[in-house]
TrEMBL record:
Residues 1-30 form the signal peptide. One of its GO terms (molecular function) is unfolded protein binding. Residues 70-97 form a coiled coil. Keywords: Coiled coil, Signal. Pfam families: OmpH. Gene3D superfamilies: Skp domain (3.30.910.20). This is Periplasmic chaperone for outer membrane proteins Skp.
Length: 194
């Protein structure tokens, strides 16, 4: 029986056993890269977007558009204030029947301005949400790569974690790699629109 076992451990089976032992002894990608090995990683998606080159560019663009919208709003408010002043002065010289249609037209103009500005603000907010969605779509391959490098099986939102070590937070590592992979994304957006 012992002779039979010795024969089995020789030849191809022995080589397979040696391979299995070597495989088990091989360092994981996380160990090779000097990264802590963990099954669960955390990430702050808000910080990931806000601190990335892509997110910074989007914030600058939205801020610039918001400033233009504020300037436009100030001009329109100044114009409407002057019209209101003129209308108030006319009120003293007009009958109620003559003044009412003018006042109603002015009220409609003010409401139209409010609705228009609100629509522009909503469009700006949607633009920010679309940029965020695009960012996370482009960042997904990098996050998958990090997951593999750390030997982890899951990445969860850091805000949903009650307690964890800082070693499990890969937000900064993800920002660094995403910036290297896509930069601020401006070139990618130009290429996609052509």
């Amino acid at each position: 029986m012992i002779d039979k076992a010795k024969k089995i451990l020789q030849g191809p089976f022995r080589a397979l056993c040696v391979l299995a032992v070597l495989w088990a002894a091989m360092p994981t990608a996380a160990q090779q890269l000097g990264l802590p090995q963990t099954d669960v990683l955390t990430i702050s998606s808000d910080r990931l977007f806000a601190d990335s080159a892509f997110g910074q560019r989007v914030f600058r663009e939205i801020e610039a558009e918001s400033a233009l919208l504020a300037e436009e709003n100030e001009r329109i408010v100044a114009q409407l204030s002057q019209e209101e002043k003129d209308l108030t002065e006319k009120r003293a010289t007009l009958s109620a029947e003559e003044f009412r249609p003018m006042a109603e037209a002015f009220d409609e103009k003010v409401q139209s301005h409010r609705d228009g500005q609100r629509a522009k603000l909503d469009a700006l907010a949607r633009l920010g949400e679309q940029a965020r969605d695009q960012f996370f779509e482009m960042a997904q391959p990098v996050l998958i790569e990090l997951l593999r490098d750390y030997g982890a099986s899951i990445v969860i939102e850091r805000a949903n974690v009650v307690l964890s070590s800082d070693a499990s937070d890969i937000t900064q590592a993800a920002i660094t790699r995403i910036d290297a992979a896509i930069g601020d994304g401006a070139v990618l957006e130009i290429n996609n629109s052509e």
